[in-house]
Amino acid sequence: MLTAKDLTAEEKLRLICGQDGWHTADLGGKIPQITVSDGPVGVRKSEFDENGVWKRDLPAVAYPAIQCLANTWNRSLARKMGKSLADDCLDAEVDVLLAPGVNIKRNPLNGRNFEYFSEDPLLAGTLAYEYIDGLQSGGVGACLKHFLANNQEYNRLEQSSEVDDRTLRELYYVPFEIACRAKPVSAMCCYNRVNGVYGSENKCGFDVLRGEFGFDGVIMSDWGAVHDRAASAKAGLDLEMPFDQGRYEKLCEDYRAGRLTDEELDACAQRMLDFIARVKKMSRGKKAATTVERRLDVAQQIAEEGIVLLKNEGVLPLKKKQSVTVSGECAAPSQYGRVGGGGSACVQWIGERYDLAKCLRAKMKGEVRYHRAFWEYALQEYSDKRELYDSILTSDVNVVCVGTGSTIEREGADRMSVRLTPVQEEMILRTAELNPNTVVVIFAGSAVDVSAWKDKVAAIVLAGFCGERGGEAIARVLTGEVNPSGKLSETFLCKIEDAPTYRSYSDPLVARYSEGLDVGYRHYDKHGLDVNFPFGHGLSYSEFKYGDLSLQVKERSVEVSFSITNRSARAGKEVAQVYVRPYNSYAYRPVRELRGFAKVKTEGGEKKDVSVVLDERAFSYYSTSVRGWVCEDGIYGIEVGASSRDIRLQGLVRCKDGKFEIVK
Ligand code: BGC
After folding, report:
1. pLDDT at 51 (0 to 100)
2. Cis amide bond preceding 488, omega within 30
3. Is position 222 annotated as part of the catalytic site?
4. Domains of the chain by range and CATH?
5. Residue bearing the CA closest to ligand 1, atom 8
C-alpha cells in the first residue's frame, strides 16, 4: 500500500484538492478514486454530459427526511435506513454518502432543520450513530456534517457562530462525539465561522474531533468552504471539495513559499491514502443485498413510525364506513419538492408520486373525495370553492393537507416564518368551521406554529417530510392499520417570539449564542413558556401506563427500571424518556435534560419491563475551569416521561464524592 512518502510533493498537493465535483484525485491512475454523493435522505447522484455539464439527477429511493427518522426515536430503524442507503450507493457506485448531518436545531427557522435530527444532542447523536453504523456495515462510507455550529442558513458562508466553550461541549459537539463512536470514514466542515474562524480552519475543533472523540477519518470541506487552502491544511482539513484551479495554484505557491510544511502536507496526504484504502476495502466484493422494492418498504416503515399524532379528539382512527374529503396539494404532490426540502438533500423519487386519497380509498368503504383546492405555499386562492365546500359539509371527516415544501425549507436560506401560509391557515379554519370533524396533516420538515387553528380542529398529524412512500404510511396511520408511535424530536413553539434565538438572530455577521445551554426544551422549560406541543410528545391509539419505578446503583452508574402497560386492546409502541434534573448545583444547569430513552413495543394489555442505564456523564456538566466533565455532589431528580412535559415517574439520587446513592 502506498504511503505519503511514495508520492511527490506535487502529487500530495493534488491529492488533497479533489478531482472535480464528486471525486477524489486518482493521480493519473496511480491510486483508486473515491466517488461521493449527497445526501441524508437518498442518493443524489447526477449525470453529466461529455463536457462535464450537469444533465440531471438520477432517480433514487427518497426516504423520509432525517427529521422524520428522528421522530421515530427508533435506533434500529436508523440503522436500517443506513443499511438500505448503502445498497442504493452500491447500485449507484457511490463510495461515500455525504451524510448524516447532526447539527442541533437551535433555530426553528433554520432552512435545513429537515436534514437534522433534533434540538437534543443525545437523540441526534444516538440515531446518527446507528445510521452511520448501518451505512458502513453495508459497505459505504459516511460523512458526518457540518462541523461545527452550523445552525442557520442565513448568511451561512460568512456568519460567525459565537459560542462559549461549555455550550459547545454540552450541546454542539455532543452529536459528533457520539456519532464518532461508529467510526465514520469522513467528516465535513461547515461554511460558517466558529468564534470568528472559518469552519475550514477550525484547528481547535478538528483537534477535539481527532484527539478526544477518536475520529480517524478525513475531514473534507463543505463545497466551496475553503478560503485559504494552505491555512486549512495547516489546521488539519484533509480534502478540499470540489476542485478549484485557482485555489490549487495558490496552494502550490504557498507550499513553495514555506507556508505549508512537508510535515503538514504529509499528514493530510497520508490520511487521504488511508481513507481511500479503507473505503475501498469496505465495499470490496459487496453488492446490494436488497431490491429497490425492499428499500422502498424501509422508507415506508420509517414514515409509519416517524409520523406523529399531535392531537386527537377521538376522530382518529377513521372508521371504514366514513366518507372523507381530502384537500390540499400535499396529498397528491405534483412535484416531489412540494412535500420535501430543497437543496443538496433533494432527491428525485424513483417511484410514482403518491396520492393519499387513492391510498385511503383502497382501505375505506366510505367514499373518499379529493380536491386539490389550494397550493401549499403559493398565496393563491382556491378555485373550486363551491364544490369543495359541499364536499366538506357532506363528508364525515375532512383531511386537510398543508405544508411547506422545498421553496420554504431549503439549503441556503432560512424560513421567514414558523406559521403556515395565510391561505393554508384560512383553509384549515374554513374547513373546521364547516365541519368540526377536521384532521390536519402537516407536511413540513421542522416546527410549525399551529396556534391560529390548533383548538379548532379535531386532530393534527405531523407527517413531516415523510418520503416517497409517505402517502401509504399516512393512510395506514389514519385508518389505524398502523398505531402511531412517533414523538417530536423538536418543540412545537407557540410563536417565533418565544424561540431562544429570537433576539439574537437578525445580525447578518454574528450569531450570538447568548442563550447558552438553553436551546429547545431546555429554553422553554427554563422560562416556563407555554408550547403547543412539547419535545418528546406524540400520541398513540393505545394508552400506556407507567409504573414500578426502581433505581439501582451499579458501580458508577444508575439503572432506571420501570414498567409500561398497554391499556388498550391493540399493539402499540411507546417512547419512554428519561430526564435528569439537578436540584442543587453550583454550576448553571438546564431544568432537565434527556439522558436516555427506549422505544417499547407491547401487545394489547401487555406489561413490559424497561431499563435505561445512566452513567456518570448523564449527571455531569462541562467545566471550563478543569476542561473536563464534572459530576457535582448534590441531589438529582430522575424523571421518566411520555414527553418532556408529561413526567410520569420520579425518583431522587444523591451524588457524593463520585458515588451514587438512591434517595427515593
Ligand atoms: C452542502 C453539503 C453538501 C454539499 C455537496 C453543500 O452546499 O452544504 O451538505 O454535501 O453541498 O452537495
Report:
1. 87
2. no
3. yes
4. 295-533 (3.40.50.1700), 544-662 (2.60.40.10)
5. 222
